[in-house]
Structures
1.
Amino acid sequence: MKKTIWGRVYFGLVLLILYLPIFYLIYFSFSSGSSMDHFRHFTWEHYQTLFADKRLLAILLETIMLALLSSLAATVLGTFGAIAIQRSKEAYRKILLSFNNILIVSPDVIIGASFLILFTALGFSLGFASVLLSHIAFSVPIVVLMVLPKLKEMDNSLIDAAQDLGANNYQVFSQVLLPALTPGILSGFFMALTYSLDDFAVTFFVTGNGFTTLSVEIYSRARQGIDLEVNALSTIIFFFVLLLVGVYYFLTKRQGKKANKLGGLLR
Amino acid sequence: MEIIKLDHITKQYDDGFVALKDINLELESGKFYSLLGPSGSGKTTILRIIAGFTEASAGKVYFDGQDITNLDASKRHINTVFQNYALFPHLNVYENVAFALKLRRRPESEIREKVKDALHTVRLDGYANREISELSGGQQQRVAIARAIINEPKVLLLDECLSALDKRLRKEMQFELRAIQKKLGITFIFVTHDQEEALAMSDEIFVLNDGEIQQSGSPVDIYDEPVNDFVARFIGDSNILSGRMIRDFAVEFAGKDFECADAGITPGEKVEVVLRPEDLDITAPAAGKLMVTVQSQLFMGDHFKIKAIGQDGFEWLIHSTNGVQIGQEVGIFFDPEDIHVMRLGETEEEFDARLETYEGED
């Protein structure tokens, strides 16, 4: 397709509109005063209060830890789940896959509410553990969905070949299956990470008194009027996520080279 | 010495499809065997059952006299070269070839030595550090062979492994495979649908169709004395005519009586007659045994493929080193030994038994 000037203008406009609120937020994180009606003068003040706010920083760290733990667990579960789905019989596979997809499609509110009901019915106290479990639960289907295509495109004779050369089941998994699935597993992990980091609805239902995540905390603070400290935090998170995306891009690019090799082999 | 024996092997899939019907075969060690048949004939299924990737529905597999029917593929002293090579894309040439030895935790010095030897056998010295994606199809093929022979298997299975190569390379690899087999002195079982490949390389060929062995024997036997019209049609080009046996060593077809080299068939029985196109010589109309009219001609480089219509309307295929005029009337000449008579529905055992009754008389 020919790239026209109007195409570029349109694309630029869309990007601008999408990023404008974020840049607006970042811009005012450097403004003195406590409101975003107009920019007064440049200051690090909000960053200073942020770094003095031990409670918010603790929540930030806990949120990141929660995201890492839940996505790690979900990646392991999801990878094995995808392998199990792929190995099951045709008709059964479709049913399993549908159950997997329902969890992705259904609204967070419903999932959050149902977890709340489940935990209270079981007498499970709400807190870090309940949030972690629900984050793992909604991340697993995402990982399954990312790993499954890699399983499908893998040449099954590779497994035969490994067995033929004397590999037992564990060796087939660790030396052939895992390397072939790595790109899918990586993207599944990063997807799970972002889903966990920015989840509000599910978390809101299952956090108890003792534990809270960043999104829930900011939400409750925002009800009492936006503090520019939140802007400063958002700016930091924005650049942190930018870094994450950069790392992901770098990793997939490297994997992409290997994937191309695979493509070359099959051709 | 017998190395592999399949005893009444059948394979039926869950959906009811019968891939193999009562396969019995015995393979001697140190020979080059081919399983030849069209796709869906069951040849790859036999290979997978020998390798241990597929379980037979009934029957037993013996390796070196031992029952290995239920032995895991990873524990069999048999290795496989796969159709698409199945090289591990995340490993380089050295790591691919060393895979089996690394699994068995052999010392590094031994691995290095053996990988070097294996790569030398397949004439890939100096390629150890290449990535798989940097290799051509023929080179990948060689790596796959090196990887499969590193464990020093007694039997090497090759699954249509030349079919992905271009024609020139395929011819080259045929010589090379044969040379590697001779050098290693182990049994090769080669699966192919390409009759030329099977004829060129094998000590013995098993022709398969519809899950049954149609005929087994040396390439020359199978080519010269096909047991039924499937084998005759599948191996090489042939002219198959219906005819009638007159008495021993005389057969009638195309409206005439001919002397032939077959016997032991009831006089008057309906038979099929096979004449190979390269056994037919084009002569002057008067000198030929049959008269035909040339219809079309293709130049194949080293010979002409000529289509001609007989007086009874039969379409003859003739290979000739010299071209002819289209529309020309010519005679075709053949010797009694060029005529091969097939009984309808005769099995290989019956054929062999009949052959023995009169071949001694020659």
2.
Amino acid sequence: MAKKNIRNFSIIAHIDHGKSTIADRLIEYTGTLSSREMEAQVLDNMDLERERGITIKAQTVRLAYKGKDGETYELNLIDTPGHVDFTYEVSRSLAACEGALLVVDAAQGVEAQTLANVYMALEHDLEIVPVINKIDLPSADPDRVKQEIEDAIGLDTENAVLASAKTGIGIEEILDAIVEYIPAPEGDEKKPLQALIFDSYFDAYKGVIAHVRVKEGRIEKGMRLKMMATGKVFEVTDVGYFAPTLVDTGRLEVGEVGFVAGSLKDVRDVRVGDTITFADSPAAEPLPGYRGVTPMVYCGLYPVDSADYDNLKDALEKMQINDAALVFEPETSVALGFGFRCGFLGLLHMDVIQERLEREYKLKLITTAPSVIYHVYKTDGTMVQVANPSELPPQTEIEHIEEPYVKATVIVPSDYVGAVMEISQEKRGTFKNMDYLDTNRVMITYHIPLNEIIFDYFDRLKSATRGYASLDYELADYETSKLVKVDVLLNGDPVDALSTIVHKDRAASRGRQLVSKLKEIIPQQMFEIPIQAAIGSKVIARENVRARRKDVLAKCYGGDITRKRKLLEKQKEGKKRMKAVGSVEVPQEAFMAILKID
Amino acid sequence: MEEAVRPWGVYIHIPFCKSKCFYCDFPSYAGREAFMGDYVKALVKEIETIGALRVEAAGTPATIYIGGGTPSLLPMELLETLLAALRRIFIEADFPQGERARERAEAGAVEYTLECNPGTVDLDKLKLCRMLGVNRLSFGVQSFDDRLLRRIGRIHTGLEAMRSLHLARIAGFDNISMDLMYGLPEERLEDFRHDLQAMAELSPEHISVYGLQLELGTAFYQMQEKGRLTLPSDEETEAMYDLMADFLPEKGYERYEISSFAWPGRQSRHNLSYWQDAEYLGLGAAAHSYLGAMRYENTHDILAYIEGIRAGESVRRLEEQVTEKAHKEEFCFLALRTREGIEKAAFLETFGVPIEEIYDEAIRNLVGKKLLEETETHLHLTPLGMKYGNMAFEAFLF
């Protein structure tokens, strides 16, 4: 395809503003899939994605469209992950495009996450086509939303398309706008190859499939190519485009978007953001913007049944094949036995991985509370990174500790500004900025420890703003904080997996809250269980779980047997997630208790 | 007639009571005495059809148990009709000459129990039962304390319970069981101690002791929901449990099951058969059967039962097909209720695989917690294990 007839674009939208539905309509309208082949929301094909209504893995599809000028255009839609955890992946997807559709709900208006992605798109010099979606809603107010887009983003909305993906209004107009306003790709097919990897996945037959955008040069089957960051060399076995299934065309031309495979076994050789070039006469420079994977959040994953350790390891390895952002290493806990410390891009990423391990691999897991990475400067002048609170060196060896801070952006109706500020202050945030997006909506920026974000910050915001708050954050820097480790002792024994790092001024109250929460969670057992919170050797809080007095069905005769077995089954089901810590049976929720206190 | 390969039992349900006790969730109904005649008629027909078929296939039963409800509430003539039918089908079937059959029954070859409530029996009724083959009585005493009895909805007094026992002795019964309850509203440890002492002085051959459980659909359950029930604390109830577990063995009663105590040789063979995976045929409304890995349940509705039997329709529905997995679970948790526990050889014979191969982890875990004891031939609960029986039972569920 001639470059001038190619258009590469993404869709930027807040969750629920209709990104997937618009993508579906575009696919349907261009006849890429017959309606019989159309499943609802074609692009979100992981079960979990459907359930949560979000996109986790980016998907790509090529659409053929005959424009008003009678020419056929190749439109490459690159669907981006729609969550703050995947900011880097979004940035690479955007770097593969010349333009983006900005989808905004005609009733809801602009949200924090939308803004963050729009700014990112603008940084990549993308041409942005605003689409006001859901104009069929009775509460739709396209003019207000247009004004908001102009005020908040400074975008001209003269060419904005009014659409309703649900009813099919405006779909053709969107396609025409893509052709008309989004520039054709540039690049020189004679230059040495530079192809940007913006996603990858593992295929059982073809090995790792890289999603690429050819920036310079061209790719053909049989070529020997090289990953510039990882150094991996491979021969192209399959190359082509997405429809959205793989269509092998034997080549990708400059400006095109498609896939490359070369019997690559390890997804870690195929890094998002890396540049593919010729193995023998490489490009002088890689494309800009590559960044290694940096997990933001860590937690321990342990099998409830220690016999499942190898299964968990296999499962993590299999997941890693498809998810280069997942890191893990073996870890041993006195309380929980053998498991893994796993690093994730964020809380959603963590949730998704845990849920997939349990669903797809049928594993019963104990998850410890998430932690950030602390930089611990020791008195001997060295610095250690601590991702597991129980590994914090003794207080006497610590000179100071630094923790990660983020720039958090919250958008709320102006009525809730006070509530947002109160919560943010309480979460050790420093106020940075406040902007009115329009007369009613405000964008507030805080400098706040990441640790506080992963502790129920968003939940609190949501409940204090009746669900109106939207949040986006990005890593800002590391700063010194007065932090201490609070340990928990069950029945007199410290339980390493319950240790937590908190700010010194809150240690006492956190300790008390944690202990009383644990008292609610830990069921009565055959003996009394003291629960204590301690800093070093100093106990700061204590509660007792009283002993269960007796526990036996008094009667069980002929007519009772089925019923009693079901009763026992129900009780047992409730205990399946318990882990024996010393002599105490501890339910899974206990390890997350720290997140549940207010 | 061919001998049954394994002993089996018959359960007969009599769903009538003078009044409903506040804790009771059994299928029994007060104020429906008018249906007793039709009910016994239907029951006899079921005995003569379903019962006779079973005997033809499996021989006569080892035990017969008439429970309720309150079987002793049946008037003399209905009781006689019922007992005669039972004797004809389940006892004499073996011996066309009835005389030898009676000798056998009297010698205790068949354990034949009738449940009674104090205050519903007189000497004539008891003598009739004895004459027609009943050789064991089970009295629902619950307490000797009239105040407590009233509080749980019982309609007899402690004195009547004692009198009933004496009448039973006069009628010639030498195998009598009495039930006690503890953990009753506003009951104190001392109250329960008095009950235990009174019981020991009466010296029945068998005693069952049940902690009160609040079951859905009972008057107590509703009172509890409304906060109008003052039960003893967990600590106090535990003390009662401990008292029972210590006191009765001291008086010569062997604890052969979690809630059952008996003089040597006087265990309830019928109840034991439930815990030892034996088959049983239940007749009457709401009676349960366990036959050929199936559990059945007769309709609970007295009128539907009477009509169904009269019309020659089946009144039984399949409650559950016991899978191999469920069978293993039940085999174990039922056997663990008994002092003897799980007989390893019986497990192997039933399932074709040694129990250690299937429950190795559960066994080690429970032994480690001192809930279970393992011998060469058996696995049985320790006294601690009996107290926390549910924890042990659960471990045998997959």
